[in-house]
Amino acid sequence: MPVRFGYSEATHLLRRAAARGRKEEAQKLAEMGLEAAVDSLLRDPVPAPAYTTSFTRNERGPQLQQITRLWLSHWLTTPTPAAERLALFWQGHLTSEYRETRGAQGIDFYNQLATFRTLGYGPYGQLLRAIAKDPVMLLYLNNAESRKEHPNENWARELMELYTIGPGNYTEHDVQEAARAFTGWTVRLKGNQRPREAPATVPFEFVFRPQWHDPGPKIFMGRSIRSGDDVLDILIAHPQTYRFVGRKLLAFYLTPEPPQALVEEGARVLRDGGTRELLRWLFTREEFYAPQYRNTIVKSPIEYVVGLLYAAHQTEPILGKDDEKAMGRTLAAFAAMGQVPFDPPNVKGWDGGMSWLAESHFLARLNLIGALAGKEKGIDLEVFMDGASGPLSLVKPEAQLL
Q1: 1 found inside a domain
Q2: What InterPro entries does the record tag this protein with (predicted)?
Q3: How far is CA 190 from CA 100, 136, 187, 230, 257, in A?
Q4: Where does a domain end: 270, 290, 310?
Q5: CB within 8 A of 36, min separation 6: which ones?
Q6: Is 253 a domain residue?
Q7: Which of 95, 181, 252, 271 could bridge to 242 as Cys pair (CB 3.0-4.6 Å)?
């Protein structure tokens, strides 16, 4: 049965795919028809502007402000915003915490974001292999210091528990053997520069140190292996990886508790075709537009701010006056709402859901409405929320929902 795709469905698609949109964009998608509209939203991402800084390696707070402004201003202006919402998903799934990642600079996190953007639509295995050698991840989960004498188990454990097959599908022995396999996977500054002398624009890069690696035979999930690549091969081939990741993608794009039948079907699409194909499959299904799945996902603070500022025709993620303290205030607002970009609270990422609407977080959201004072006549909320009838609608529950 063909999916009915009119203006109402187009607004829903824009909210879910891109977390931003305006009336004329929804009208254009509706005129294109469903499949063309979906293909338009899922086209290859436009690269973000390059990052540079004059701050030192010790001035990480200002660097966080810079990369946050650069990313969110790109999200507000790019013709491919769906790629940025997907990058936000990967940031909360393949997690690294800015404040806890010793030594990593703004450039390293910005490079990791670029990896999420450029590889995020493709095969999950390809993205996972890149993140396994990503300097931020290696530093965050301590694999950069893992040697054969004392293998560090953090990366090996989270790789299975949070990034691939999920809890209950591996043993402690598997963690120990995987940790041995990843010894020697570490980082150095590009050009082999010294951290004390290098500017903050010099990123870390992956390096394999054979002298740190445990070359002996290992048994992982019943298979004989030697290297970290062998571990990745096994996990990427495992059907449970696609059920686990596919369920999280459906929770992010469809509903917090996706039906098991859709999870199973989505897992097959993800395994055979990659993330873009999973999203195309989902966005062209009748279930995606069903009333029971509309307004079931709470906007994260980042999605709320991006959607609201875009509705107000704003191109910079500035809340209030644009001065030298603007991004400091903006990051403080994100912290008050419970979501600082690039800095999830722990390795599990952001809890999301109703936790975004805890009393203090919700009040911080409502305080943002004041930042739009004077822009009421130009604000276009038709895509931002269902049933919008002017700025006063922002106090309604629907304003918090995708």
Answers
A1: no
A2: DUF1800
A3: 21, 14, 9, 27, 43
A4: 290
A5: none
A6: yes
A7: 271
What range does the domain containing 51 cover?
7-290
Cα separations in angstroms, 156 against 164, 166, 212: 11, 12, 16
Neighbours of 380 (CB within 10 A): 17
Which residue from 82, 89, 86 is spatially nearest to 18, judged by alpha carbons?
A: 82
Q: Find, among 17, 42, 236, 258, the residue nearest to 123 by Cα.
A: 236
Shared-domain flag, residues 87 and 212: yes
Q: Rounded to an integer, what distance in angstroms lies between the CA atom of residue 31 and that of residue 14?
A: 14
Q: What is the pLDDT along the chain (402 residues), one digit of tens a residue?
A: 678 999 999 999 999 999 999 999 999 999 999 999 999 999 999 999 999 999 999 999 999 999 999 999 999 999 999 999 999 999 999 999 999 998 999 999 999 999 999 999 999 999 999 999 999 999 999 999 999 999 999 999 999 999 999 999 999 999 999 999 999 999 999 998 988 889 999 999 999 999 999 999 999 999 999 999 999 999 999 999 999 999 999 999 999 999 999 999 999 999 999 999 999 999 999 999 999 999 999 999 999 999 999 999 999 999 888 888 999 999 999 999 999 999 999 999 999 999 999 999 999 998 888 777 677 678 999 999 998 887 888 888 889 999
